[in-house]
Design goal:
With 72 residues, the chain is mostly helical. It has three helices and no strands. The protein is 88% helix and 0% strand.
Length: 72
């Protein structure tokens, strides 16, 4: 992932990140359904969206831990 994309993700609020993760999860569901119903293969896109969701969750967890450390 490029540095500029990482910086753009870090600049977003937690609500924006959660919304993006939800949208990606919805896209994954649609891809799985189209694979099952229509036989389309969308492997590379589902892999990328799965990794993007993991990046978002990692960033949210880092912020959560930083907030806890700051509170103590």
């Amino acid at each position: 992932m490029k540095k500029s994309l990482k910086q753009a993700m870090r600049a977003k609020t937690p609500d924006e990140l959660n919304a993006e993760a939800g949208q990606l999860a919805g896209d994954q569901l649609k891809a799985r359904l189209s694979t099952t119903l229509e036989g389309k293969r969308l492997g590379i896109r589902t892999r990328g969206s799965r990794r993007q969701i993991a990046r978002i969750n990692t960033l949210l967890r880092e912020r959560e831990l930083a907030a806890k450390a700051k509170a103590n």
